[in-house]
Amino acid sequence: MQSTITGELTNAEDVLTILNPRTGEPVGSLSVAGTDDVAGAVAAARAAQPGWAATPPGERGKLLREAARALDTAAAGLAELNAQETGRPLDEALAGIAAGVSTLEQYAELGPVHRGHSLRGNALAADYTVAEPRGVAVLLTPWNDPVAVACGLIGAALVTGNSAIHKPSERCPHLGKLLGEVVAPVFPPNVLVTLTGGADVGTLLTQQPDVDMFAHVGSSATGDRIARAAVLTGAYVIRENGGNDPLVVDADVDPGWAAEQAAIGAFSNSGQICTSVERIYVHRSIAEPFCHALAGQARDRNTEHPLAPLVDTRMRDTVHRHVAEALQLGARAIEGGTVPVGPGAFYPATVLVDCADTMDVMAEETFGPVAPVRVVDSFEEGLALAAAGRYGLAATVLTGSIAHAQQAVAALPVGTVKVNEVFGGAPGGAAQPRGESGHGFGYGPELLDEFTRVKVVHIAAPPAREAAPPAHETDGAAS
Question: Do 45 and 118 lie in a common domain?
Answer without folding.
Answer: yes
